[in-house]
Every structure is written in structure tokens, then in C-alpha cells.
Amino acid sequence: MIKKILVANRGEIAVRVMRTCKELGIKTVGIFSDVDRNALHVRYADEAYYIGPSPSNQSYLVMDKIIDITKRSGADAIHPGYGFLSENWEFADRCKSESIIFIGPSSYAIKTMGDKISSRKAMIEAGIPIVPGTKEKLETEEDIKRIIKEIGVPIMIKASAGGGGKGMRLVRDANKFAEAINAAKSEALTAFGNDDIYVEKYIESPHHIEFQILADKHGNTLHLCERECSVQRRHQKVIEETPSPLMTEELRQEMGKYAVAAAKAVNYCGAGTIEFLVDNDLNYYFLEMNTRLQVEHPITERVTGIDLVKEQIDIANGLKLKYKQKDIVQHGHAIECRIYAEDPENNFMPSPGIVRNIIEPQGLGVRTDGYVYKGYEIPMFYDPLISKLISWAIDRNAAVGRMQRALNEYQVTGIKTTIKFLKQIMICEDFVKGKYDTHFIENNLDFLLQKENRDFDCEEIAMIAAYLEYNSFLEKIKPQTNFSNQQNKWKDFGRKKGLMKL
User: Fold this and answer.
1) Judging by DSSP bridges, how do beta strands 221-233 and 366-370 pair with one another?
2) pLDDT single digits (tens) 325-370
3) Model confidence at 487: pLDDT above 80
């Protein structure tokens, strides 16, 4: 059984994984770059090792260093978290060759599902519905013209590798695709080192719905129901919730079976996510598979009561799943808001800097997965996600209300955050009614970015002035609370009591 795990990550996900390890009595090893020397995950780990300079390509992405530290620390397994090396099939292979347990799927599954073209082929063979489009990478403009004649416009040109919306371009005019091809290939080459592209039919105003999968090494695979991830900005998720407001029980059963079949098609083992696009007529199409733990996994944990990190570790230990599909039941409703160090009023520019103060919300039905503390400096080298705020309640309306309360309690000063932007989403009529799709933010951007009546800059200046005035007041009254005088009075009192032999 695994006794010590090196967490090959940083930030909130490193702390999240270590928490479960501590509950299981498993020792943890952290790694840190120059800028992360004082990070929370370093303090939380049982032991921590320096991994290199701040840029991730010189630290968190260097396989040799991570393998070396794993061996030196005596760890017998690596948990990759999400991002960095979590979906790198070569790293999974390297761990296996070094006799280190990789807490994740096989390199074959990562490689097959990591490439969009090969995953589309695998899904076609398994009978999973996919978005109409190409089955091979496209080499020439003539290929694109041929496909446009077959499926019509609009189309989406996509990079075969990677994700996160990079290397994607929408084409609505059949005669104007050349520029989009060049832009998509260039962006894909820069982001992923691979400029292979393919084409899909563009689904107008879809929902982005995903199913959480668990699969053990004994052939047992099940799903933990869906997450609705349609509130996105530039193809990046902002808010997730479960159950989906769009979902019916019949549709859940049907899509869940396809999600399990998709995982089995690549002999998947571990925790993973099958993502679908769903149109207004409830037609659904396989989009991609994430072969790792998702950022939004806490909402699934909240409604099912299942610790997904614990399940990952149990599966890596070769244990059988303790649940059958009939045991998976959703209780209540959960919502997750991603809190970023970004300035929404300045085109969501990253906002690194020192956190002067932070007050995280608490109370019934509220969970915060974060890593930031007062005085911590948000570095400019990594993803600007600073925490995830999760609300839970017995139904959706109550969960929305609880999230509104939690966001109002959340205070961060010293840097800009997306908290105010998220507050606006929580009171936006379309979101409150659950009537939204992937275009929700762009359709409501004016409302979401409107300034509140409060002037935060003036408020901060007023608070600083009050603080200075208070300190000035303390200085003025200092002679009246002179400690030495008080001490002398107590001494005098003691002497008198002594003389009185009390």
C-alpha cells in the first residue's frame, strides 16, 4: 500500500491532495520553486524540496527533477494534481519505468484521449456520438473546402493537442477560413508544440456538460453524474454546478451510459471526466476526455459524499471500487465559483501582488479550497486561480442564495479579484433562472461588468485613514496606560498585603 506521496503540483490542488493523504495516514512530499518558497503547500507538506527557478518549465515541468526528489524522499507514488504533468503520457510512462506509482490512468489512455483526433476515432469505434467533422488531421486548404461542402458553416477549427480554448477559431463565412487556419495552427504550435488541426461542425449556443468517471483495475467503471460547466469566458470555465438545470433523469441515464462506455473504450483506470456538448434539442456529442482530477471536482464530492482523491489513491493501490452505479445518488445542489487574481474591469488582466488582507467565507454549506493567506504574494508565473468557493444547499435556489451570501463575506485586499464579477453573475436573471448556455457571459457582459454604487478605491482610502487615525489615538493615550506605573501600583499593593500578612 502507498505510504508516502509526492504531490507534483502547487497551490490549492496541492493542499487539497495533501489533506486527504493526512486523513489516510499517508506522508506527503511537497516541491517548490523559488517564488513558492513560502507557499502554503510547502508548510502543509510533511517535507518539502526545492525544485528549481520560478518558471514552470524549469521546475514543476521537469520530469528528471521530480523523479529524483521522489526517490530521495522515499516516496512510492506521485499525485500530479491538475495542469503541469497531469496529462503527460510520457511522464506516466517514466514513472512506471522508474517503479514509481503514478496516481492516474495509463499512458495509453492519456495519449489516446489527449489527442483530439485519436480520441474522436476511438469514440466512433465505441459508438459514442461525436460532433460531425473530420476524422483525420487536415493538411491543406483543399481539405477544409471539402469538409465545408460536406457539413456546411459555421465550423470550428481546433487544435488536435491541448485544451483550454487555445488553437480554436470559429469560421462562419465559407470563403474566409484561410486566416483562421493560420491563426489556429500558430497558436497551437506555440501552446502545445503541435500544429495539427481538425474541423468540427459548430454547435450554436450549446451547453457544456461533463460526467465524472471512476474506474478501477478490476474492470469496474461507473459515473458520478454530471456537472454543468456552461458559464465560460473564452472557453475557460468560470462557474460550475451540479445537477445541471438542463438535465432530465432520462437524459442523465443515457449520457451516463455513454460516458462509461467512452472510458471503457480506452481501458480507463482512475478518475476522469467525459465532456459533452448538448444543443437546445438535447442532442449531445462527445467533446473530449480529461484524464485527471478536474478543478471542479468538489461539487461532485459535495452532492455524492465521495472523496475523489481518496478514490484515486485506493484505485492506485489496486483496490476495487466500493460502489455500484445504483449506489451513486445526488443529494442537494452544489455550485463552485473560481476566484481568480484578475481585474475584470481591465479585460481580466492578471493581478499579481501581495495580499494585504483576506477573510474567507464560512458557515453552513460553504467550502473554500484555497492557498492564499495574509501577506502572501501572488506570483506572476502561474495560473491566477487563488481559490474555489463551493456552496451547497438542499435545492438550487437555496444554493444560489448561499453562494450570494458567501461571496458577500469574501474579502481580499491588495490585489484585484473576480469576486465582484461573480457576485453579478449570482444575481443575473438568466443565471438565477438556470437559463444559460456557453454564451451567457458575452450575452450579459454589460450587466456583469457594471460598477456597484460603492467606490472601492475611496472605501480603501477611508479605511487606511481610519487605521492611521486609530493609531494616532493610541499614541495619545499611551501615557495613561504606562505599564511601569501599573506595575508599581501592583507592587505597592503586594507589599501592603504582605505587611498585612494576608
Assistant:
1) unpaired
2) 999 999 999 999 999 999 999 999 999 999 999 999 999 999 999 9
3) no
Q: Where are the alpha helices (DSSP H) in 152-287?
A: 178-192, 249-264
Burial class (CB in 10 A: 0-12, 13-18, 19+), 474: exposed
Instruction: Catalytic residue, from 16, 120, 252, 292: name it.
Output: 292
Integer Cα distance of 293 and 13 in angstroms: 9
| CB of 137 closer than 8 Å to CB of 197 | yes
| pLDDT digits 0-9 by tens, 228-273 | 999 999 889 999 999 999 999 999 999 999 999 999 999 999 999 9
Distance CA 42, CA 36 (A): 8
- Return the HEC string of 16-27: HHHHHHHHCCCE
CB of 41 closer than 8 Å to CB of 7 = yes
Backbone phi, psi, residue 66, to 5° = -65, -45
Average pLDDT over residues 151-172: 85
HEC profile for 135-159? CCCCCCHHHHHHHHHHHCCCEEEEE
- Residues 215, 268 contacting (CB under 8 angstroms): yes
Look up residue 490 and give its amino acid.
Answer: W
Amino acid identity of residue 434, one-letter, is G
Q: Which DSSP symbol is given to 161?
A: S
Amino acid present at 446: D
Known catalytic residue at 292: yes
Q: How many CB atoms within 10 Å of residue 7?
A: 27
Residues 6+ positions from 245 with CB-CB distance below 8 Å: 228, 396, 434, 435
Checking DSSP bridges between strand 236-242 and strand 221-233, what pairing results, if any? Answer: antiparallel
User: What are residue 51's phi and psi, to 5 degrees?
Assistant: -115, -15
What are the cell numbers at 174? 465559407
Q: What is the pLDDT of residue 450?
A: 83
Report the phi/psi class of residue 498: left, alpha or beta, with left for phi > 0 and alpha for psi in -120 to 50: alpha
Instruction: Indicate the residue type of 246.
Output: L
For 206, the grid coordinates are 450549446
pLDDT of residue 388: 98
Which tens digit of pLDDT belongs to each residue from 395-449? 999 999 999 999 999 999 999 999 999 999 999 999 999 999 999 999 999 999 9
Antiparallel, parallel or unpaired: β 333-340 and 349-350:
unpaired
Rounded Cα distance, 382 and 32, in Å: 13
Phi, psi of 415 (to 5 degrees): -135, 165
